[in-house]
């Protein structure tokens, strides 16, 4: 069973203009039709340049942002609508499940597990769409609280993600008490001391403030806060980029140790390719809000196919001064504005393999190997004679 399935996720930010009366004049398509999944105990790495939509995906997963469109399934249950405004959630449920001929014709043999769950709710409500929606919303607050607990996030800069006015003890007891994981404050403090030891700190650190710690120690506190509520999924949003290289290694080792203990799924967002290769089993490469290459980590790093992935790898620092950089895959130019994306393939203004079709049509995602997908016309033309689209 997949822990998290993200399907066709979209997050558009409106661009507003006007002084007295604001009107929407366009959208920044930060995340546009992105799909991927995470298994328990596994890590998916999301890589790409700054501004390609990585952090927006992370914030959408932990519901700090309301998504524009798409589905998010947790443990094969559609949880997308719980964090929408109720009116929009009702429209979503009606359009997708309860007003469709698919649900009304009574044959559920072809349904996916998440659809079967909705179908059961629909039958329980005597096939009345409004009643079925009410059933789902009866326990919405409880459900939201559970989903928030299940998915946690660790941000890039621990100094700005920790409250400077609170002690470590105050910060870490709060989620334990809120989610009722302990009976009282005394038990919460004992639990916090255990968590501090688990992340490599000392129990007496419980009374200290964030400014009394080093950068690496602060990130350990942020990790302790994330794991305090026993999450199934942790989004790690550039968790080591604000740290020294020596401390980075310690924090990455800590993530691996905790993953073994908790069996949690990780979404590891980073532009550090070597780190992503080290920690992730699956990788998605993003460019201007879309995934351009996706699949098994080793396959992508050993045999990158998309010209953008090749350029990213060619630009990565090489620790051995005797080794020569692969200059032929490097690209020039700037990432185009996400407000005004190029027609056809978004990478075409910078791509040296550009063909006529590249400026006209966005390439479909095609399978090139068992677990290796790429969105590039160089591969889609050959796939048209017998390949598969994702
Ligand atoms: Fe380059 Fe065309 Fe592939 Fe885009 S689709 S990466 S422009 S070859």
From TrEMBL:
Pfam families: ABC_tran, oligo_HPY. InterPro entries: AAA+_ATPase, ABC_transp_ATP-bind, ABC_transporter-like_ATP-bd, ABC_transporter-like_CS, Oligopep_ABC_C, P-loop_NTPase. Keywords: ATP-binding, Nucleotide-binding, Transport. Signal peptide: none annotated. Residues 4-313 form the ABC transporter domain. GO terms for molecular function: ATP binding; ATP hydrolysis activity. PROSITE patterns: ABC_TRANSPORTER_1, ABC_TRANSPORTER_2. GO terms for biological process: peptide transport; transmembrane transport. The keyword Transport applies. Gene3D superfamilies: P-loop containing nucleotide triphosphate hydrolases. PANTHER family: D,D-DIPEPTIDE TRANSPORT ATP-BINDING PROTEIN DDPF-RELATED (PTHR43776:SF7), TRANSPORT ATP-BINDING PROTEIN (PTHR43776). Belongs to the ABC transporter superfamily. This is Oligopeptide/dipeptide ABC transporter, ATP-binding protein. The lineage of its organism: Bacteria, Thermotogati, Thermotogota, Thermotogae, Kosmotogales.
């Amino acid at each position: 069973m997949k822990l998290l399935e993200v399907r066709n996720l979209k997050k558009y930010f409106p661009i507003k203009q006007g002084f007295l009366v604001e009107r929407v004049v366009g959208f920044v398509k930060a995340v546009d039709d992105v799909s991927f999944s995470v298994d328990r105990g596994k890590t998916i790495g999301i890589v790409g340049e700054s501004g390609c939509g990585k952090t927006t995906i992370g914030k959408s997963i932990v519901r700090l942002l309301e998504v524009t469109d798409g589905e998010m399934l947790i443990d094969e249950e559609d949880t997308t609508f719980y964090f929408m405004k109720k009116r929009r959630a009702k429209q979503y449920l009606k359009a997708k499940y309860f007003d469709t001929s698919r649900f009304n014709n009574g044959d559920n043999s072809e349904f996916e597990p998440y659809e079967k769950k909705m179908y059961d709710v629909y039958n329980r409500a005597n096939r009345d769409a409004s009643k079925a929606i009410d059933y789902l919303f009866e326990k919405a607050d409880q459900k939201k609280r559970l989903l928030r607990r299940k998915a946690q996030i660790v941000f890039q800069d621990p100094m700005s993600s920790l409250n400077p006015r609170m002690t470590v003890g105050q910060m870490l007891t709060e989620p334990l008490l809120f989610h009722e994981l302990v009976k009282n404050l005394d038990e919460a403090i004992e639990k916090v001391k255990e968590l501090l030891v688990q992340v490599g700190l000392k129990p007496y650190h419980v009374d200290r403030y964030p400014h009394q710690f080093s950068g690496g120690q602060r990130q350990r506190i942020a990790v302790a806060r994330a794991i305090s509520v026993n999450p199934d999924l942790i989004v790690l949003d550039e968790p080591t980029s604000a740290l020294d290289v020596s401390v980075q290694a310690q924090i990455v080792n800590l993530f691996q140790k905790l993953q073994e203990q908790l069996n949690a799924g990780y979404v590891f967002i980073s532009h550090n390719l070597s780190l992503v290769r080290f920690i992730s089993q699956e990788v998605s490469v993003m460019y201007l809000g879309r995934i351009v290459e996706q699949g098994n980590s080793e396959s992508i790093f050993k045999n990158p196919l998309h010209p953008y992935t090749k350029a990213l790898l060619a630009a990565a620092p090489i620790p051995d001064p005797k080794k020569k950089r692969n200059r032929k895959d490097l690209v020039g130019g700037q990432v185009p504005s996400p407000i005004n994306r190029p027609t056809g393939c978004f990478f075409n203004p910078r791509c040296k393999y550009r063909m006529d079709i590249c400026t006209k049509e966005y390439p479909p995602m095609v399978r090139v190997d068992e677990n290796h997908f790429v969105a590039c016309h160089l591969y889609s033309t050959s796939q048209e004679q017998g390949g598969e689209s994702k």
